[in-house]
């Protein structure tokens, strides 16, 4: 069954037999330029050029499955459509007129499109495979796949940067505050992302700035605002944290978040939110001027070393407050966790900064960073590997995630270079 987006595709790439092409009114039609595809409101193609009975026309072109759709869409009441030079339809079931009564030239494409093209499109749309083109992708040129991945990774970076820009606007262009918020959010990774973000909201960065040179005070603020100091403790360290927090809470008129929000179950102890909060405190302690460092370097090793922090010594034999652990070892942020922070925080921030400063260097730095980061390991990347598409860096894995979620799952084969090659094969 024909769909309008596919009809747009057919017209855009002129994938129909144009020999002996006549309008429904009997005029000889020659297409010089199909026009520029418009994805916003208004006619579907701008600035097309056609010859109608030896007269050259330039203007907008509208596409419909049936010519009667013109009225269904109320174009007869919209001046933007009254000067359309050509109406392209799959099936002509009604003559359409301008406001002055003149018939709008219409061509019907049904019967002019190769059956195998229609079948290939239908196969993609009806596919139940993990990706629609799963049985054909091995025949697609490697250069086509590479170009599509380049497009996908840029789209993913741009999508993430939009969220950064919204946050930046909220914080009135304070880049350090925005970086702090993002670090907090992603320190929770998937399981505790929400309470970590609430913690960032409950503990403004201007307060962090005032205590950034004192790790103990940072821990008191973070654990206190996390609601994890509202208990009776036996050990000296949490008692001192509690005492410090009571003072700072009164000084800044703070209100902690609900402690029940934190999720511990099904997490390995090294990933407990208590450990993450302690590691975040160390990162904040070590990272004065972090944003300036970020925009001045694209050196992966330098940023990796800055982020790869360890919790303070109390946590060497603790996973939670006031409960001694049998293990005694450094609670260091894992390499994969560091890489995820670079991917989800630093790279999108660089893209947003490139937009803000109109400086493409920062965009290139974000891309360079992704190419230096190890590939992510998840079910999506494993499934792509089964299809013969390897991921050698975070640049690749981010592209493949974007491809799966924003193209394949939505069956956007018409806007995908891979899908286009499959559809257009002879």
Give a count of the beta strands, DSSP E runs of length 2 or more: 8
- H/E element string? HEEEEHEEHHHHHHHHHHEEHHHHH
Structural class: alpha/beta
Low-pLDDT stretches are none
Shape: elongated
Mean pLDDT: 95
Q: Give the termini separation.
A: 21 Å
Number of helices: 17
Indicate the percent of residues in helices: 40-55%
Please outline the major beta sheet. 6 strands, mixed
Strand-residue proportion: 5-15%
Query: What is Rg?
Result: 29 Å
Structure description:
β7 and β8 (323-324) form a beta hairpin. The protein has helices at 4-12, 69-72, 115-126, 142-170, 175-187, 193-202, 205-210, 215-225, 236-252, 273-286, 290-296, 300-307, 335-357, 360-372, 379-386, 394-408, 417-424, and strands at residues 29-33, 36-37, 45-52, 55-66, 86-91, 106-108, 318-320, 323-324. The chain has 17 helices and eight strands. Strands 1, 2, 3, 4, 5 and 6 form a six-stranded mixed beta sheet that branches. It has a two-stranded antiparallel sheet with strand order 7-8. The model has no long low-confidence stretch (mean pLDDT 95). The protein is α/β, with parallel strands linked by helices.
Topology:
Elements: H1 4-12, E1 29-33, E2 36-37, E3 45-52, E4 55-66, H2 69-72, E5 86-91, E6 106-108, H3 115-126, H4 142-170, H5 175-187, H6 193-202, H7 205-210, H8 215-225, H9 236-252, H10 273-286, H11 290-296, H12 300-307, E7 318-320, E8 323-324, H13 335-357, H14 360-372, H15 379-386, H16 394-408, H17 417-424
Parallel strand pairs: 4-5, 5-6
Antiparallel strand pairs: 1-3, 2-3, 3-4, 7-8
Helix pairs in contact: 3-17, 4-13, 4-16, 5-6, 5-10, 5-13, 8-9, 8-10, 13-14
């Amino acid at each position: 069954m024909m769909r309008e987006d596919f009809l747009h595709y057919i017209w855009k790439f002129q994938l129909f037999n144009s020999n002996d092409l006549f309008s429904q009114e009997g005029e000889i039609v020659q297409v010089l330029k199909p026009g520029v595809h418009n994805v916003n409101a208004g006619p579907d193609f701008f600035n097309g050029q056609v010859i109608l009975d030896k007269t050259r026309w330039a203007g907008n072109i509208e596409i419909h499955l049936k010519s009667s759709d013109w009225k269904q869409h109320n174009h007869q009441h919209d001046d933007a459509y009254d000067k359309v030079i050509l109406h392209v339809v799959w099936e002509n079931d009604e003559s359409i007129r301008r406001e002055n009564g003149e018939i709008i030239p219409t061509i019907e494409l049904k019967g002019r499109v190769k059956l195998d093209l229609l079948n290939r499109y239908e196969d993609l749309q009806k596919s139940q495979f993990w990706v629609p083109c799963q049985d054909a992708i091995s025949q697609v040129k490697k250069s086509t796949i590479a170009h599509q991945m380049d497009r996908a990774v840029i789209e993913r970076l741009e999508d993430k940067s939009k969220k950064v820009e919204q946050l930046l606007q909220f914080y009135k262009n304070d880049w350090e505050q925005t970086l702090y918020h993002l670090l907090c959010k992603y320190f929770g990774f998937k399981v505790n992302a929400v309470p970590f973000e609430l913690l960032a909201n409950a503990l403004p960065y201007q307060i962090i700035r005032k205590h950034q040179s004192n790790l103990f005070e940072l821990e008191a603020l973070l654990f206190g605002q996390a609601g994890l100091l509202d208990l009776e403790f036996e050990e000296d360290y949490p008692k001192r944290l509690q005492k410090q927090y009571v003072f700072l809470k009164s000084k800044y008129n703070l209100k902690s978040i609900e402690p029940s929000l934190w999720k511990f179950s099904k997490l390995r102890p090294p990933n407990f939110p208590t450990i993450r909060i302690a590691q975040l405190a160390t990162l904040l302690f070590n990272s004065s001027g972090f944003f300036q460092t970020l925009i001045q370097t694209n050196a992966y090793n330098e940023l990796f070393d800055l982020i790869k922090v360890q919790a303070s010594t109390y946590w060497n034999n603790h996973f939670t407050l006031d409960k001694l652990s049998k293990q005694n070892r450094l609670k260091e942020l894992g390499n994969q966790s560091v890489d995820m922070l670079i991917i989800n925080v630093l790279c999108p921030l660089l893209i947003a900064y490139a937009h803000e400063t109109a400086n493409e260097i920062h965009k290139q730095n974000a891309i360079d960073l992704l190419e230096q980061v190890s590939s992510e390991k998840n079910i999506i990347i494993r499934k792509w590997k089964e299809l013969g598409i390897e991921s050698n860096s975070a640049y690749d894995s981010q592209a493949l995630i974007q491809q799966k979620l924003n193209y394949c799952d939505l069956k956007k084969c018409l806007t995908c270079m891979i899908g286009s090659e499959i559809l257009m094969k002879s």
